[in-house]
Structures are given as structure tokens and as C-alpha cells.
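Memo to structure team: turn this sequence into C-alpha cells by end of day. - J.P.
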Amino acid sequence: IGGGTARNLEFYADLIPSLESVEVVDLCGPLLEQARKRCEAWPNVHLIEGDATTFKPEKPVDRIYLSYSLTMMPEWPQVLDNVADIMSRGT
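Reply from structure team:
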């Protein structure tokens, strides 16, 4: 959530092919366009334009990764509440 250009996925490049699915969620379309180029080699990476305060994944998730982007979100308490809700429900 707050995945932007998906640059942080490069730290997990060896792991990504073994994952069923990775969703990069960001509110900014131009950042996701940069992410699209970065993630071309990973067919299991899906880019989603969405609001971190309200985004709900379609399937249960194992992990949610938030990085520097959280510090730039004015509604960061709502983002953390949403993440906690997603993880507690499994979806």
C-alpha cells in the first residue's frame, strides 16, 4: 500500500517469482505507470490505483508492506486502521 513506483519490490526480486500474487496499490496514476515498466518481468505483480484508507483486496493477504509513503499520507491513522482491518479479516 502506497507502492508508488514499486521500487521497493527490487529488494525482493528473488522472492517475487515464487509468490502467487503481489499487489502494488497507490493513488497516483503516474507513479503506477513507472511501476508498470519496473514490473514488466513479473506477471504476478498487479498494479492497482486505489486509496490507502479504503482499499480492500479481493483475496486474503499474508502481508502488507508500508514504507516511506505512510509519512506522506495525511490520513495515516486511517491507513493504519484500514491495514489492521484487512489483516484481521484476512481480506
